[in-house]
Task: inverse folding
């Protein structure tokens, strides 16, 4: 059986925040439609990887390479990375006062449509699809007309991230503790949406500490990040071992690491 070419290729990525080096040579491949779970102790650099790939200005790439569908991701400004098909969720989604949720998402969606050569959605068509997706995800329709995340509960913020994911349908999504703050129904919504998008070819990197979610997601790969590097690569059994024994054990560089 032929292994598909990686959608995302990260090679020897080094990232600094201020004067501190956080990632010290991360390498990984993520094929189309696959799902990798990224685990690591607090402060190991999991969120840093997502923010660096997204182009957040606080996260300075000091070495290495990241390719998305053979395109140099690091050479693009943040908005062009999103247009190229990258989606990164926030661990703690911020408020965007004064910007209505429906306008924010429709503007982002139409920018992606333009990059793909697709026609824009008018307000009526967008609202119909947004309401349908919101209902599936358990997000009240009334929040579509509110400013982005303003007054939202923690679970509503995460469901709003899922709504953006469902409508944008990116090529690659990095979900940073998307289950944090969600109830049981919210976790089911995460699993269902990820399964639907994977079937359409979307690849995922999911940051999570929770074995229950990881087992439901059925990842292709589990990566353990330690001291700024991928210390272990394995399958679901690695996640179970970490859940049982914790992170406090010697790091061994994975043989499968590129």
Result:
């Amino acid at each position: 059986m032929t292994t598909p070419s990686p959608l995302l290729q990260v090679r020897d990525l080094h990232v600094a925040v201020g004067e501190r080096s956080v990632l010290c040579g991360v390498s990984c491949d993520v094929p189309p439609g696959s799902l990798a779970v990224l685990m690591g102790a607090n402060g190991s650099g999991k969120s840093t990887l997502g923010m660096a790939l997204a182009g957040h200005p606080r996260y300075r790439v000091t070495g290495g390479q990241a390719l998305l569908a053979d395109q140099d991701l690091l050479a693009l400004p943040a908005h062009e990375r999103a247009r190229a098909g990258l989606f990164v969720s926030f661990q703690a989604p911020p408020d965007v006062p004064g910007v209505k949720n429906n306008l924010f998402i429709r503007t982002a969606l139409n920018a992606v449509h333009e990059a793909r050569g697709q026609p824009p959605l008018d307000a009526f068509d967008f609202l119909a699809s947004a309401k349908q997706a919101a209902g599936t995800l358990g997000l009240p329709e009334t929040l579509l007309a509110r400013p982005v995340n303003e007054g939202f509960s923690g679970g509503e913020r995460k469901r709003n991230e899922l709504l953006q994911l469902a409508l944008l349908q990116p090529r690659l999504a990095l979900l940073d503790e998307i289950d944090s703050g969600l109830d049981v129904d919210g976790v089911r919504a995460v699993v269902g949406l990820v399964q639907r998008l994977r079937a359409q070819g979307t690849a995922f990197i999911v940051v999570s500490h929770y074995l229950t979610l990881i087992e439901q997601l059925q990842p292709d790969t589990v990566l353990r990040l330690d001291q700024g590097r991928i210390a272990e690569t394995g399958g679901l059994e690695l996640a179970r071992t970490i859940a049982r024994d914790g992170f406090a054990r010697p790091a061994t560089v994975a043989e499968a690491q590129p």
About this structure: Confidence is low (pLDDT under 50) at residues 251-258. Helices lie at 46-54, 78-83, 101-115, 123-137, 154-168, 184-199, 211-217, 236-245. The chain has eight helices and twelve strands. The longest strand covers residues 20-30.
